[in-house]
């Protein structure tokens, strides 16, 4: 089965806006009905007590804050935070009224309502759990944009969602009262439904982070979440409803209903897990086949490059050799134009041979493995420096003591030779300075080779390690040196990158594992 691309889930980015606007519209409808003194049955859902005016007010500001929090506009950002603060304050003051037994007059501040909510003691006052939800949800909207506030905000949102779902399930299962501690009698169905919408929208307020990023990802984790969540959410609801019908209809006892629920959960979730495991196993086998095909293609490509380069090297060498003989024997008899053309042939043949040698080196890089040995990198850098034989105007310094590393000596020597050789080759200063240093990062050795040369333009740095890519007009530049170096570093489990400013030199970094 082909997994849907992330673009399929792109409309979910608008979920905070949609859920926020839905809550605002419903809150406006309730407030309009309250101002016009409509009967309760015309304001709320049939058969349920309607939303109170202060509940609608807090819901409206919560929805406004959610809808604006998903926007990038800085001015809207502050409107969103102010709206979240109002939602939070309304919930906090109502909770304080219940806890302290003090009437702050917030219940009747907007609209006078002489009738308390069913099970409530105070006219126009929202239920305590509704107030608690507004307080926590407003707080989540406030802290979500703080540097470390995303996950705490999502945890608060999950808590609000849990309370809202419990409040809604009361009506789904037709439970008269789920809380029997004084005024703690749940929340209105409309409040629970709107709060669930707000919480679902909040999950996607940052679509590229956290829960939303996992749910919409085209990875195995995202696939697993999307396949399991609907079953995990819906199946317990249905399984809990069926035994309840039997108990209420006196078809069997409550004990038998509990046993039936437990056995049903065991069987159905075992089937769901098996089906998901079967699907993941299929994906894993398809991935293994694809990896093998990719490995075969890479091997064939490397073999092709090696054969082609090897076959091209002989005629190019012959052209270079014959042209040099002709130049040596008859060069003095040529006119200046002919001598220039002979030198052009020699130069192009040399460049072509360097490119062929580079292709051969690239095709062999990372393929052969040599025995690892303890290598003193201080001595290795000295040997490489002697081999490069830099001019007297260029100085190569080792800034600190380099480690003694268990590694493949020839390959590591080639890495240092390529990087130091490039620094020497492209040096444009009268007094060149190349510095080598090392440090430890996350259990690996990190090496730095820094020079004061011409630097690398910002626009070509990302392509610097691509094969055949070169920005220099130097005659010996083939665009293969850094590609070979990258391949060697990665074959040993490391990584390589660079930092540079034009005119201020370049710094190449690469890591090698300690073991």
Which features characterize this protein?
five-stranded mixed sheet; two-stranded antiparallel sheet; 9% strand; elongated; 515 residues; alpha+beta; single chain
| Alpha-carbon Rg, integer | 36 Å
Number of strands: 7
Strand order of the largest sheet: 2-4-5-7-6
Q: What's the overall geometry?
A: elongated
What is the count of structural domains? 3
SSE-based structural type: alpha+beta
Count of helical segments? 15
Order of helices and strands: HHHHHHHHHHHEHEEHEEHHEE
Low-pLDDT runs of 5+ residues are 115-120, 178-184
Calculate the mean pLDDT score and round it: 81
Strand content: 5-15%
The biggest beta sheet is recorded as: 5 strands, mixed
- Determine the fraction of residues in helical runs and give it as a percent range: 55-70%
- What is the first-to-last residue Cα distance? 41 Å
Structural features, described:
This protein has 515 residues and is α+β, with helices and mostly antiparallel strands. It folds into three domains: 6-218, no CATH class; 297-364; 373-513, Histidine kinase-like ATPase, C-terminal domain (Heat Shock Protein 90, 2-Layer Sandwich), CATH 3.30.565. The protein contains 15 helices and seven strands. Strands 2-4-5-7-6 form a five-stranded mixed sheet. Strand 6 (496-500) and strand 7 (506-513) form a beta hairpin.
């Amino acid at each position: 089965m082909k997994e849907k691309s992330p673009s399929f889930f792109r409309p979910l980015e608008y979920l905070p806006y949609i859920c926020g606007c839905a809550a605002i519209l419903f809150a406006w409808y309730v407030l309009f009905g309250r101002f016009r003194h409509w009967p309760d049955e015309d304001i709320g859902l049939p058969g349920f007590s309607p939303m109170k005016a202060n509940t609608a007010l807090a819901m409206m500001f919560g929805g406004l804050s959610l809808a604006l929090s998903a926007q990038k506009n800085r001015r809207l950002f502050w409107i969103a935070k102010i709206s979240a603060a109002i939602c939070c304050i309304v919930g906090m003051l109502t909770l304080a009224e219940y806890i302290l037994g003090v009437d702050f007059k917030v219940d009747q501040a907007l609209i006078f309502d002489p009738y308390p909510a069913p099970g409530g003691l105070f006219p126009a006052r929202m239920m305590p759990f509704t107030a608690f939800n507004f307080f926590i949800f407003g707080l989540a909207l406030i802290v979500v944009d703080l540097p470390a506030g995303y996950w705490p905000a999502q945890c608060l949102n999950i808590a609000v969602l849990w309370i809202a779902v419990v409040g809604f399930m009361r009506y789904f299962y037709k439970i008269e009262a789920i809380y029997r501690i004084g005024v703690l009698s749940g929340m209105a169905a409309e409040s629970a439904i709107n709060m669930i919408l707000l919480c679902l929208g909040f999950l996607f307020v940052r679509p590229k982070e956290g829960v939303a990023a996992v749910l919409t990802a085209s990875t195995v984790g995202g696939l697993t979440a999307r396949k399991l969540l609907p079953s995990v959410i819906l199946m317990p609801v249905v399984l809990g409803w069926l035994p309840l019908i039997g108990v209420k209809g006196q078809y069997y006892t409550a004990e038998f209903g509990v046993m039936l629920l437990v056995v049903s959960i065991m069987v159905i979730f075992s089937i769901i897990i098996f089906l998901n495991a079967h699907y993941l196993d299929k994906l894993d086998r398809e991935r293994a086949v694809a990896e093998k095909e990719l490995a075969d293609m890479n091997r064939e490509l490397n073999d092709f490059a090696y054969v082609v380069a090897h076959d091209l090297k002989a005629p190019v060498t012959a052209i270079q050799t014959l042209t040099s003989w002709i130049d040596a024997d008859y060069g003095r008899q040529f006119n200046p134009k002919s001598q220039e053309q002979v030198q052009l042939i020699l130069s192009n043949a040399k460049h072509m041979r360097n490119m062929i040698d580079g292709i051969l080196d690239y095709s062999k890089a990372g393929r052969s493995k040599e025995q690892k040995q303890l290598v003193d990198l201080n001595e290795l850098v000295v040997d490489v420096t002697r081999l490069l034989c830099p001019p007297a105007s260029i100085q190569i310094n080792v800034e600190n003591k380099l480690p003694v590393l268990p590694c493949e000596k020839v390959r590591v020597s080639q890495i240092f030779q390529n990087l130091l050789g490039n620094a020497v080759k492209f040096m444009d200063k009268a007094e060149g300075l190349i510095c080598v240093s090392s440090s430890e990062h996350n259990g690996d050795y990190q090496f730095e080779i820094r020079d004061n040369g011409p630097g690398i333009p910002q626009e070509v740095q990302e392509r610097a390690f691509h094969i055949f890519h070169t920005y220099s007009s130097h005659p010996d530049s083939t665009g293969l040196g850094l590609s070979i170096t990258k391949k060697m570093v990665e074959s040993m489990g490391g990584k390589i990158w660079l930092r540079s400013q034009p005119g201020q030199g370049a710094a190449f970094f690469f890591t090698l594992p300690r073991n």
